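Rotation project, supervised by the postdoc (A.L.). Task for the rotation student: set up a whole-complex structure prediction and record inputs and outputs verbatim in this book. Inputs entered:
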Amino acid sequence: MTESPVTVYEPAAANPDAGVAPKTPPRRALGSSPLVLGTIGLLALVLLFEILPRLEILPSQFFPTSSEIGAALIDQLGQPDFWAALLDTIYGWALGLLIAAVAGVVLGIVIGSSHFLRELTASTIEFLRPIPSVALIPLAVLLFGTAIESKLLLVIYASFWPVLIQVLYGVQDVDPVAQDTARAYRFDFWARIRYVTWPTALPYIMTGLRLSAAVALILAVTSELVIGNPGLGNRLAVAQSSGAIEATYALVVVSGILGVIVNLVFRYIERRTLSWHPSQRAEVAL
Amino acid sequence: MAFLRRFGFALGLPLVLFALWWVTSANSTNFYFPPLSLILDSLVAEWFGPRLADDVLPSLMRLAAGYAIAAVVGITLGVLIGTYKRLRDLLEPVLEFFRAIPPPVIVPILMLIFGIENTMKIVVIAFGCMWPILLNTAEGVRAVDSVLSDTARTYRISGAARLRYLILPSASPQMAAGLRQGLSVAIILMVISELFAASDGLGFAIVQAQRSFAIPEMWAGMIMLGLLGFLLSLLFRLVENRWLAWYHGLRRAQRAG
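Outputs recorded:
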């Protein structure tokens, strides 16, 4: 395969936002499988966090042991408030992501389909995109206080851009021959979107969604933490300020697990919706 | 003409939006949305005045320190993890977990450990933006072209030379992607770390303005932060274009051929 370097680098170079590395293709290792080694790695982490604070290599007043964190975690799982907070976080995340995704896909297809609009909006998008979403925090607080709208404002702003940018790339990636063929066969506008643009852009949309999902979670938790909307972040802030350090760590672990689940779910959705796409087939063939 | 056309396209919409904001807010009596002229006055008087040295500079210094630490640690660990498959298998789930933690949630914990001074803020920035750099570097190192890698082995190129002439250049496009992602995370964390407890900094000043209902100042601060994000990403792109000029040229040639 002479073109292998191109395909290898494609995600990083073509998508400025694509930072998430593609999964390592499963390969057979000599001796132990990645699954076993990975489990050992996780266990080692837990063990380190048990031993180091006990030996005071890490000061135990700041670093509770794994068993203490685990106990705090179980304690949290038994509290109805915890589940309410978790639901609040997930609700804000999902609603914000949904709005951002719909807006990003629709605007991306509209802008991307027209050369004129693309040129007209390019500079504005390039300017607005790098504006850190946290810049909106003061405005969100003033306008909405701790109501869910302030969380949504931050989540939507942050997760809108990855989707939009990816859709723009995807729409531009449409094969001109396919486009012309569809035109020659008198496909109308909607049919061209449905049968030509959409399938081409779908892998890009999925990448954008996966990136946005992670960003949206970060912003949802951040807004709870900083603004004080009800949710995991707020619970964490309360735990920290009341000196419940084990609970603080436990909630950090929960947010990490939530992040892992979000990543896994979106990778799964990506693989399912794109099972027909060459990029996914190639992985199976390896 | 072509130049004028490009110029028009690049500035057209921003100018229209700016004019729209100016006109619609001109006689605004809404407390939260003051006239744009007032905001710009405050931007020039405050943010490009005394606050530039008092607040913006300390923020930028912490950003630079945290980002530099993250780049060094992330690239070093990334090269190691990308090179040794066993190590990668061992650490992958752990790294996936750490990457998935929303970086701002570690602020409360780091506040306990490091207090609220510069150290805490730099550690927060470094910790948060290290993961994209690390994981992308590891992926780039892992995906080094096998023909190149075999050729290097055949010529007995190993150790430092191998790192210098094979691994780092091959992985640099991915590294750049990670560094770019890391930069936007770093800016976010720069602001967040100042929201909790601080005596100076951009984030601190903006929130201070908001709490004291100095609304034009708050808007000006938000614009300042936006400008900063924009300029830093522009700067990054300039550096990247120079650094990876060979790579972009290679891609163009491959696409054309």
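Student's summary: Chain B has eleven helices and no strands.
Supervisor addendum: Chain B has one domain: 38-256.
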